[in-house]
Amino acid sequence: MKNPYIGSGNYCYANSMAMVLQSYGYSYDPGYLECLTAVANSAFWTDSKSPVIFFSSKFNSPDQGISLALRNLGFQFDEFYLNEDPPKQEFVLSKLSDFLKNGPVIAGPLDMGKLTYIPYAKDLKGVDHYITVYEIDNYIHAHDPAGYPHIQIDVNVFLDAWKAEKINYRRGSFSMWGNIRKVAPEFDSFEAILGK
Fold first, then answer.
1. Count of H helices and E strands in the chain?
2. What angle do CA 43, 71, 73 make, to 5 degrees?
3. What distances in angstroms separate CA 129 from CA 64, 69, 118, 185, one per listed residue?
4. Cβ atoms 60, 39 nearer than 8 A
5. Strands 139-144 and 128-136
6. Among 78, 119, 136, 171, whose Cα sits 20 to 30 Å from the Cα of 177?
7. Is pTM, for the whole model, over 0.70?
């Protein structure tokens, strides 16, 4: 499938990853991918005297989790983000165009409150979001797994959301993953993941 749509469910980053992988010919259930990101699976003790364990994304953010899941599935990929002063718009769009030469990309986090095609966006300021970008011309063409397939986003609106300035966990602005290629079999056990 060239640009499949998977969405209308939780975990936009897992759905975006599933869409991109399917466009490269690899089919994975978004729920499986979500588990591989370890975002919602991080266990920690509240303190040394407490017998209670909590599960949280405290130790792995979605942008780190995407890279972790792709590596554990045996993929090599290119990723990009900037954690310095925003560059010129042309530089970022050129990087996105380069990534798109080989297929769609996972883009995010984006500030969902700045995605003006979402009717209730004004209520989502600072909420993180991930989408699948598959083409760029005068607009950004993408699938938004929140229930918006085949959207066109004004380039300036997209770039403003993609800065993700209010997303506190982000490694940087303009994060994306693409140029995905399978180089090894996926790990089939925790021992393999841990290198034992």
1. 6, 8
2. 90
3. 14, 18, 12, 29
4. yes
5. antiparallel
6. 119
7. yes
Return d(Cα 115, Cα 149) in angstroms, integer.
Answer: 14
DSSP state of 137: S
d(CA 107, CA 177): 7
Q: Residue 51 corresponds to which tokens in the numbers above?
A: 């017998």
pLDDT surpassing 50 at residue 50: no
Say if CB 132 and CB 1 are below 8 A apart. Answer: no
Question: Phi and psi of 131, rounded to 5°?
Answer: -135, 170
Report whether the peptide linkage leading into residue 109 is cis, meaning its omega lies within 30 degrees of zero: yes
With beta carbons less than 8 A apart as the criterion, state whether 107 and 162 touch. yes
Q: What is the pLDDT of residues 113-166, one digit of tens each?
A: 999 999 999 999 999 999 999 999 999 999 999 999 999 999 999 999 999 999
In sequence order, what are the residues at sequence separation of 6 or more whose Cβ sits closer than 8 angstroms to the Cβ of residue 4?
19, 22, 23
186-193: list long-range contacts, CB under 8 Å, 24+ apart. Answer: 186/72, 186/73, 186/74, 187/72, 187/73, 187/74, 193/72
Q: Do the Cβ atoms of 153 and 143 come closer than 8 Å?
A: no
Q: If you search the block for the tokens 């989790």, which residue do you land on?
A: 65
